Amino acid sequence: MPLNCGIVGLPNVGKSTIFSALTRAKVDTANYPFCTIDPNVGIVPLPDKRLDRLFDIFKPKRKVPAVVEFVDIAGLVRGASKGEGLGNQFLSHIREVGMIAHVVRCFDDPNVVHISGKIDPADDIEIIHTELALADLESIDRRLDKLSRQVKVQDPNLKKDIEKEIAVLQKLRPILEEGRPASTAILEPEEVDYARRSFLLTLKKELFVCNVDESGMANNKYVDIVKSIAEKQGSEAVVICGKYEAELADIEDSEERAEFLHSIGLEEPGLDVLAHAAYRLLGLRTFFTTGEDECRAWTIKAGDKASTAAGVIHSDFEKGFIKAEVYHYNDLIDYGSETAVRAAGKMRQEGRDYVVQDGDIMFFKFNV
Predict the structure, then answer these.
(1) What global pTM score does this model have?
(2) CB neighbours of 211 closer than 8 A, spacing ≥ 6?
(3) Per mean pLDDT, which range of 18-27, 183-192, 339-348 is the poorest?
(4) Can you tell me the distance from the alpha carbon of 58 to that of 337, in angstroms, rounded to the nearest whole number?
(5) pLDDT above 60 (res 199)
(6) Are 305 and 356 in contact (CB under 8 A)?
(7) Would you tell me how many other CB atoms lie within 10 Å of the CB of residue 301?
(8) What is the mean predicted confidence (pLDDT) over 188-216?
(9) Does 84 or 294 have the greater pLDDT score?
């Protein structure tokens, strides 16, 4: 699965504004549909107070954060699955990302055109879900047609495998016909593996992003609607004021940024919340390395082992892996220093099959 997040939604809901603030990149924004045609890609540093604390403790020359890749995908419209509004091109861009950040307009502004002529978050979400579901229906039908021919093979093991996949796709089909995402289906782990063979758009995890105006940060009826839909879907929703985030992105001074956040009643930027949620839903975890040159946060998938984590740093580390010295960030904070952690017996020697935990601090020994 790709380790990136696609920003999707109807035209004029604030996708490109949010993307610009995320990446501090000046992509085109305009008050008309299809301003974005080719997807913009941005690498966004992941704020992490643990890395900041490690930098203060070890005082290296630099600190390097983990990152999240965001892709700004052009607005979808009703009929996208049939090619409306360059729909086929945009749907292919969604197919290439690991998860979806679905931006929903949650503000009233007569000066910003809404493609449907009204503000209705539930209807907006349904349009996107319906188009993605229709695209998935086409994918399933093509796959079923291919499998129906392959099932005639003589190999009993292959035939059994094909029959299992057909059963899963037939289970998903009525859900998609109702316009609901495939991710809402109750599937066993093995069934999910079969479903993934069709590269379904609606099987991707979806994070809802409520884009509000300055007056809509609290007691917003539109946000309540989106959160209700997210809860029913087993997903999450974050609230962002695109205008505030754009202004905040232009402030370089950290104290001035803190003052701005305080003035609007926020503890942290909404985009930080978004980045962390995307990182988590992508199934990503962080381990750290420290030294005189740098303190660095490295990204792995949940469940990755020590040898795989070593390979993230350099392929030679994985090939020649001997062992890893490991202790946890929380132990460092509790005991105050690496020396104290070692004296307390909290520093361990782990082999290649050790499952790395989020917040581990690691030093790898290898031989090539």
Answers:
(1) 0.85
(2) 13, 14, 17, 18, 103, 104, 105, 106, 107, 240, 241, 242
(3) 18-27
(4) 9
(5) yes
(6) yes
(7) 15
(8) 93
(9) 294
Residue with token string 């609901």? 180
Contact 119, 25 (CB under 8 A): no
Strand 67-72 to 40-45 pairing: antiparallel
pLDDT at 39 (0 to 100): 57
Q: What is the DSSP letter of 234?
A: T
Task: Say if residue 318's pLDDT is above 60.
Answer: yes
> Could you give the CA distance from residue 9 to residue 114 in angstroms, rounded to a whole number?
12
Q: How far is CA 239 from the centre of its chain?
A: 16
Give every CB contact of residue 17 below 8 A, 6+ residues apart in sequence: 29, 211, 242, 243, 245, 246
Give the CA diameter of the chain. 71
Q: How far apart are CA 198 and CA 204, in angstroms?
A: 12
Token reading at 229: 């839909």
Q: Name the H helices within 24-120.
A: 49-58, 87-95
Residue 365 has pLDDT above 80, yes or no: yes
Element of type H or E holding 17 = helix 15-23
Q: What's at 153, amino acid-wise?
A: V
What single-letter amino acid sits at 43?
A: I
At 31, which amino acid appears?
N
Determine the Cα–Cα distance for residues 72 and 293; give it in Å rounded to an integer: 34
Q: Mind giving me the DSSP string for 278-338?
A: HHHHTTEEEEEE--SSEEEEEEEETT-BHHHHHHHH-HHHHHTEEEEEEEEHHHHHHHSSH
Most confident by average pLDDT, 171-180, 207-216, 344-353: 344-353
Q: What is the mean pLDDT of residues 3-19?
A: 87
Average pLDDT over residues 348-356: 97
**Averaged pLDDT for residues 303-321:** 96
Q: How long a stretch of residues is the chain? A: 368
Contacts of 139 (CB under 8 A, 6+ apart): 198, 199, 200
Tokens of 131: 């188009």
Query: Which class for 209: exposed (0-12), middle (13-18), buried (19 or more C-beta within 10 A)?
Result: buried
Cβ atoms 325, 362 nearer than 8 A: yes
